[in-house]
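Q: What would this chain look like folded?
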Amino acid sequence: MTRPAHHSRGFTLVELLTALLVLSLLAMMSWRGLGAVLETREQVLDETRRWQAVAVFCTRFERDLAMASPRPVRSGGLEAPAFVARTAEQAGPRLELSRFATREGADSPRRIAYQLNDRRQIELWLWPGLDAAPGDTPARYVVLDDVGLLQLDYLDTSLAWVPTWPATPASAPMPRAVRLTIVLGSGERITRVFAVDA
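A: My prediction, written as structure tokens:
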């Protein structure tokens, strides 16, 4: 008696090639999807870092204005106003002011300034104290990168915005508020108004 032959049937070459093609297409779609997710994640992280830097800068700027002091400063035998604001065309930092010590006692009274440099960075200038000795130069720290425009306007006692301070020889020692406008390199325009607590 003969047993029937059992043939073990495998995959044909066409079936194997079809399966490989399907798996290749799935792998390629997954790879592209993963690439898009990673790229989006990087863009979101860059955006988050940029807005965090703007928030930190605005907080620092607001804090410095809140501690602004009406005390004039002496430098090289001359007296300078407590609060000096210039346009971009004028020499010197855009905003220069006297500042009280912090409430926490972490810093002393000093002269500070803000300036937009040639590398499109807003710098914070810090002098060692309020009155500068001859030859004293401020330390400079970058507080915000990739800034295309820095514009500052000042609210006088008649509630008009002016581009410089003191606006007139009879102006108050300090403005009532400062309007800050910055345009980032990516094109976003930010305008904030800060009270000057003097």
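Residues 127 and 138 are 4 Å apart (CA to CA).
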